[in-house]
Amino acid sequence: MVEEGDSVKKGDLLAVVDHEALTYELKSKELQLLVDQKRLDQLKREHSHDTFATLESDRLAYEDALRDYTAKKQLFEVGAVSDIDLKEAESEKMKTHNTYLSSKSNYENEDAVEIQQMNLRITQAENRET
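Above: the chain sequence. Below: its structure as tokens.
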């Protein structure tokens, strides 16, 4: 093998590659990629469950507020509920509706963003290996 600055001629050994170290490193990276992919699958399941639970909770809150508003509107029409009570019920209905719409949007969009980010990380890890 030659050192830096040595004269070389055809056939001289220039370097020795340690195949065992490279093979070990490749296997290590492949295992880490497999672990990351399994973690991604787990995160997808957990996130989907949590986001769906929030969506359902917000949907139920909106449905309750809508029923309350409808009932108070009918009572208002016969003079059994004040204007203030009706407006408070209407405000709650609108607030819970907006919260529900926001949760629905998050449910539909956040999964896609998180999955894209994790897939990007996996792609970057794969590219580092090559």
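The mean pLDDT is 86.
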